[in-house]
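Page 47, continued from p. 46.
Same chain as before, 72 aa.
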Amino acid sequence: MYQIDRDLLGYYVKKANTTYAALAEEMGIDRSTLSRHIATNTLTVAEMYVLISELKLTQEVVFQIFFAEKVA
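Result:
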């Protein structure tokens, strides 16, 4: 299972000058659904693809955001 680094994702959302609402609209889902998927680490591959594409994330950043190691 993957772990999303929500702080780092938020940084790249702001850097791309967009909002979670705009990203959710691009995905065809409600903002609250996107927020829940991020909070519960249940993003679909299609949702991840939209985030990667819209935020113009590099491969290194993708791994940092979506495959962050859990810290106890």
